[in-house]
Specification:
Shape of chain B: flat
Number of helices of chain B: 3
Distance between the termini of chain B: 41 Å
Oligomer: heterodimer
Strand content of chain B: under 5%
Strand content of chain A: 5-15%
Number of domains of chain A: 2
Shape of chain A: globular
CATH class of the largest domain in chain A: Alpha Beta
Number of strands of chain A: 11
Strand order of the largest sheet of chain A: 1-3-2-4-6-5-10-11-9-7-8
Largest interface: A-B, 59 and 49 residues
Number of strands of chain B: 2
Radius of gyration of chain B: 22 Å
Strand order of the largest sheet of chain B: 1-2
Structural class of chain A: alpha/beta
Largest sheet of chain B: 2 strands, antiparallel
CATH architecture of the largest domain in chain A: Alpha-Beta Complex
Order of helices and strands of chain A: HHEEHEHEHEEHEHHEHHHHEHHEEH
Radius of gyration of chain A: 21 Å
Helix content of chain B: 25-40%
């Protein structure tokens, strides 16, 4: 592997020409095709100093967008996503589209219609999901930066399982115009990088209000690198008590070690109770699926994407195109969401989930009155074998138990490598902050990264 | 919450999804497992917390904007003729 690609983007770009950098990435992508991280490689990209990969639910005019699904067929977007427009304007090289769970529904990448991406630390393991291709590509040093998307942890969870940095910005911080909608009150574009500084610089490029996305915020874009190097002395970190109670084994030990690193930097540590946090997954699977069932009704075989050749009537066009085009997990979620919104069950399921969500929002935002950050492990366990949870959707859903709260409440959160299990698999620390506190998240995460240096270790790939 | 085959069939029709009977039974059983987990939300005291989010998404001004290029739309359409999407006959069909 090229030593160049071991460097963070912000260092590598100083050392070689954009052409050499892009070529090194393309060679690495080809040499590691067996990881199945890319669904489409752009062999002749515009050459710029930021080689980047995009999750395949972020649309571009010059590449297909499949969302990891068969239902989009040969769809080519007539427009670029706003993040793509911003990246192009800054001279980014768009190197391809990364593998993902179909419509971003999954925590393992196994729900991709094009086969799972593999974890570069051990190709028999999942890379996490749904942005598994993006996380695996950065971890394998194929690209320095990749964009993903988050609905319940889909950037942070694969970043954790692959040992890289993953950011979910505040809801509304980054425009979603051109991000194929999954659950509109939760979705947010996120960033995967090797280092925290790279992540902060990329957020500066893609953040900001966009007239094409009415949910994008008019809050001014911060200088995200301004506090890098400032340390954590005097900063207050809250340990979520209810999350601690669920930890065991190596993940617990690793988390305790992470807390010691922060304490050693002069941070104050206290326990904080968020009683409703344990209900986050139950709330999530009602809210997200209800919204998905509405958003995915647009895939009907009429205007774009797959139309069944069997269909003879209009109803058959709908039923057969969707039946052939959607995979089992997407159907399961559409069914759950449709049920939760259906007459007679709306109040008991959707209405109640939204009220519990409001309670969780109240508890989390109140906690930030007494602490600057809340921390948990990013995931309850390291990467698991491909196939291990395939027959048990609920146990797969619980992979997102620590990440989903930030989506439900709209706050930013970052996953940063926190070491390795005895089997040599990456573990990760999650740092959450109040709305629009990305700059503070980068400050704490970069301190942790510098103290520990785990990002320097990379998997043995070609 | 117990979902049986008939209930799964009702939901599938609403969702424009079709399953054969074995698939419907499997779906019903998976939905039952997941909804039973979700039923723990019943034990949360939500007194004082409203369903509706206080933050409202603002509307843009109601002014015309350029929309997608017609040729690009046509190139993605499964069936297209004379500037229109073609679908099977809805009225008076077979």
């Amino acid at each position: 592997m090229s030593e160049l690609l071991e460097l963070p983007w912000t260092e590598a770009r100083e050392q070689v020409s954009p052409r050499e950098y892009v070529d090194a990435c393309l060679r690495a992508i080809d040499a590691n095709a067996s990881l199945n991280t890319f669904l489409h490689v752009n062999r002749e990209p515009a050459v710029g100093a930021l080689p980047i990969a995009l999750k395949d639910n972020i649309v571009t005019t010059d590449m297909p967008s499949t969302c990891g699904s068969r239902i989009l067929g040969t769809f080519h977007s007539p427009f670029d996503a706003t993040v793509v427009t911003r990246l192009r304007a800054r001279g980014a090289s768009l190197l391809g589209k990364t593998n993902m769970d179909e419509f971003a529904m999954g925590s393992s990448n196994e729900h991709s219609a094009f086969g799972p991406a593999r974890n570069p630390w051990d190709p028999t393991l999942v890379p996490g999901g749904s942005s598994g291709g993006s996380a695996a590509a950065v971890a394998a040093r194929l690209v320095p930066v990749a964009l993903g998307s988050e609905t319940g942890g889909s950037v942070r969870q694969p970043a954790a399982l692959c040992g890289v940095v993953g950011l979910k910005p505040t809801y509304g911080r980054v425009s979603r115009s051109g991000l194929v909608a999954f659950a509109s009150s939760l979705d947010q574009i996120g960033i995967v990088t090797k280092t925290v500084r790279d992540c902060a610089e990329v957020l500066g490029i893609i953040a900001g209000h966009d007239p094409l996305d009415s949910t994008s915020s008019t809050t001014p874009v911060d200088d995200y690198t301004a506090d890098l190097g400032a340390g954590v002395k005097g900063l207050r970190f809250g340990l979520v008590k209810e999350a601690l109670d669920r930890l065991a084994g190596e993940v617990r030990t690793n988390f305790d070690d992470a807390v010691d690193v922060l304490r050693g930097g002069g941070a104050t540590i206290e326990e904080v109770s968020i009683p409703t946090i344990g209900y986050a997954i139950a709330v999530y699977y009602i809210v997200a699926n209800a919204e998905a069932s509405a958003n995915l009704s647009r895939f009907d075989g009429i205007r774009y994407g797959h139309r069944s050749t069997r269909a003879r009537t209009l109803d058959e066009v709908y039923f057969d195109s969707r039946g052939e085009g959607f995979g089992p997990e997407v159907k399961r979620r559409i069914m759950l969401g449709t049920f939760a919104l259906s007459s007679g069950y709306y109040d008991a399921y959707y209405g109640r989930a939204q009220r519990v969500r409001a309670k969780l929002r109240h508890e989390l935002t109140s906690a930030f009155a007494s602490v600057d950050y809340l921390i948990t492990p990013t995931t309850p366990e390291p990467a698991f074998p491909i196939g291990a949870k395939s027959d048990d959707p609920l146990s797969m859903y619980l992979s997102d138990i620590f990440t989903a709260p930030a989506n439900l409440v709209g706050i930013p959160a970052i996953a940063v490598p926190s070491g390795f299990s005895t089997a040599g698999l990456p573990l990760s620390l999650q740092i959450m902050g109040p709305h629009f506190a990305e700059r503070a998240l980068f400050r704490a995460a970069e301190f942790f990264e510098n103290e520990t240096g785990y990002w320097r270790r990379s998997p043995a790939v070609h | 919450m117990e979902i049986d085959r008939d209930e799964a069939r009702r939901v599938a029709a609403l969702a424009h999804l079709e399953f054969d009977d074995p698939a419907l039974d499997r779906m019903a059983s998976e939905m039952t497992t997941i909804l039973t987990y979700i039923d723990q939300l019943r034990e949360v005291d939500v007194q004082g917390f409203e369903e509706r989010n206080a933050t409202v998404t603002p509307f843009r001004d109601d002014e015309p904007h350029r929309s997608a290029d017609r040729e690009l739309v046509a190139s993605n359409a499964p069936a297209w003729r004379d500037g229109l999407f073609v679908v099977p006959k809805v009225i008076g069909g077979e």
